[in-house]
Amino acid sequence: MERPKLYFVTTNAGKFREAEHLFKENFDVEQVNMPYPELQDNDLGKIAAYGAKYCAEELKKPVMVEDSGLFIDALNGFPGPYSSYVQKTVGNKGILKLMEGVENRKAQYRSYLGYCEPGGEPVTFEGIWHVDVSFEEEGTMGFGYDPITNYRKYPIGEMEVEQKNEVSHRRRALLGFREWYLEKIKQ
């Protein structure tokens, strides 16, 4: 049987590396660096589903799209679904400035993986990772908010891809998808 091949639409090389690492034993994944319209919504699941359906129709291939965000409890879930925009405009230093003097450092990374085949309906898979916001930037590994978050007091910005893949929100969403997809292709 030919090895399945899926297409991960993302401009983020870090996200792609994490997916490729988790899927390498089961199927091939190719990164597609393609811009697509992003639904403006407070629900990451809807955003991922919309992106997956749009890309599947455009590419005429089975695609995955992942949307994720950092939801900080003390900031009422901000930046949430706007994490990418906030990262580009305010950055890690801006988030740390907002968190000055704040005792509650609890946050979650949330990830939704949307999968869709051409002509089909999208399916989504959620992953949540409970973390804390650090008091300063630590480490040069990872991307995005990694340098200002920690997991069980360990700086995420110092984690290797393999370490992060053991516990991350993206891992949880990707593993949910992998389990579902492997069952689907058996049928």
From TrEMBL:
GO CC field: cytoplasm
Name of protein: Non-canonical purine NTP pyrophosphatase, RdgB/HAM1 family
One Pfam family it belongs to: Ham1p_like
Presence of keyword Cell division: no
GO MF annotations in UniProt: nucleoside triphosphate diphosphatase activity
Family listed: Belongs to the HAM1 NTPase family.
Keywords (A to Z) from UniProt: Hydrolase
One GO BP: nucleoside triphosphate catabolic process
Superkingdom: Archaea
Organism of origin: Methanooceanicella nereidis
InterPro entries: ITPase-like_fam (IPR029001), RdgB/HAM1 (IPR002637)
Recorded name of the encoding gene: rdgB
